[in-house]
Amino acid sequence: MVHKPVLLYETIDSIIGDANGLYIDCTLGGGGHLQELAHRLGEKARIIAIDRDADVLEQTSQKLTDDRIKFIHADFRVLKQLLDKDECGNADGIVIDLGVSSFQLDTPERGFSFHSDSDLDMRMDTSQKLRAWDVINTFSEADLANIIFRYGEERFGRKIARAIVQERDKKDINTTLELVEIIKNAVPAKYRREKHPARKTFQAIRIAVNDELGAVEGVLPQAIEVLKPGGKVAVITFHSLEDRIVKKYFIAKSRNCICPDQQPVCTCGGQKAEIKIVNRKPIVPGEEECLSNNRARSAKLRVAQKI
Ligand SMILES: C[S@@+](CC[C@H](N)C(=O)[O-])C[C@H]1O[C@@H](n2cnc3c(N)ncnc32)[C@H](O)[C@@H]1O
Question: Per-residue pLDDT for 266 more than 90?
């Protein structure tokens, strides 16, 4: 299935400034946002497109040949290192569209999908050591329960973690469908009839394997740093924990002083606001978009502008 970009126009509209400026797409994926960005920019614009998934990068870069675009296989967590000296502090706009792309979900052997059988992998960057197999077969029951409960917001996290440990004590759990069966058997029958019972656990394991929350925390300060004054960063999240990280970071960096409100005297040294929050409330997709793209339902877009 082709990846449908979420909040496409809202995102691109919110970051476009100089039509011949420098733009960065930190999460290339299927290139939906990139394509729209390229379409709206002038001949002299430059766009840096990053993805940590080499297969995604190859597929999309072949589809989108354009001299203005430089494709880079990397983790956006090292954003600053990927830019030349003259690019750092000169970006007009940055897009960060978190999560997985349809290409990853639809490639069974990558192990992201609970619908098809594959090795337990789920790595976005296949050169990384940690795979879903390691999380499932070697993490402690407490860690598994915590991951499934927090990252998956799965109320049966403890039960599922217990069942995983009981099964792996008999033999290693090697495939996605083995894991699905264990989850199905661990949750109440009523729950099995609602949404797919493995959906939340798979999301949780994927977030842990790819340290997705750590990546967001890592990229935000660099995104602000590489923008030029007036430049904007747009972040689309699909998970409440991700959104909280972005919201808190934007609030903290938009304040001139970070002392608690009730403190009478400033002791933080008078931090200077680095950004202005463009939208106090996150922008969310309308009903029409949610109806045509299920993935859009949990999306939230936050935008900040460098001062
Ligand atoms: C939701 S998709 C992006 C979709 C894209 N905006 C589009 O319109 O087609 C997210 C992409 O970001 C990539 N990604 C996730 N975390 C990353 C990271 N830390 N560094 C670089 N790429 C990352 C994933 O591999 C995936 O291809």
Answer: no
Instruction: Say if pTM beats, i.e. exceeds, 0.85.
Output: yes
Atom of ligand 1 nearest to the CA of 34: 8
Pocket of ligand 1 (CB under 6 A): 3, 5, 27, 29-33, 50-53, 56, 75-77, 97, 99-101, 124, 215
180 touches 116 (CB < 8 A): no
Beta strand pairing call for 275-277 and 69-73: unpaired
Domain topology for 129-209: DNA polymerase; domain 1 (1.10.150)
Q: Which of 56, 79, 96, 124 to mutate for ligand 1's pocket (most ligand atoms within 8 Å of CB)? A: 124
Stretch 218-236: mean pLDDT, rounded? Answer: 98
Q: Which residue ranges does the chain devote to CATH 3.40.50.150?
A: 8-103+212-306
Sole residue written with tokens 């109440």: 188
pLDDT of residue 193: 78
Q: Give the pairing type, strands 91-97 and 300-306.
A: unpaired
Q: Which atom of ligand 1 is nearest to the CA of 77?
A: 19
| pLDDT of 212 strictly over 90 | yes
Region 8-103+212-306: CATH code: 3.40.50.150
pLDDT surpasses 80 at 226? yes
CA separation (Å) from 113 to 119, 127, 189, 199?
A: 11, 20, 22, 9
| The predicted structure's pLDDT at residue 3 | 79
Closest CA to 3 of 43, 51, 42: 51
Helix (H, G, I), strand (E, B) or coil at 209: helix
Place of tokens 């797409």: 25
Q: Whose CA is nearest to atom 24 of ligand 1?
A: 100
CA-125 nearest atom, ligand 1: 25
Cα(244) to centroid of ligand 1, in Å? 19
Cα Rg for the chain, rounded, in angstroms? 21
The CATH 1.10.150.170 portion of the chain extends over 129-209
